[in-house]
Amino acid sequence: MASVILLDDEEDIREEFSAFLQSLGHVVQTASSIKQFSAVFAANKPDLALIDRSLPDGDGLDLVKALREQGVRCGVIMFTAKDATQDRIDGFRSGVDHYLTKPVRLQELAAVVESLTWRLQANATWRLVLATWELKAPGNVVIRLTAQESAFLQVLVQQAGQTVNRKKVVQSLGKNFADYDPRNLDVLVLRLRKKVASHTTAVFPVKTVHGAGYVIEKDCVISDA
Question: For the chain: N or C, fewer Cβ within 10 A?
Answer without folding.
Answer: C
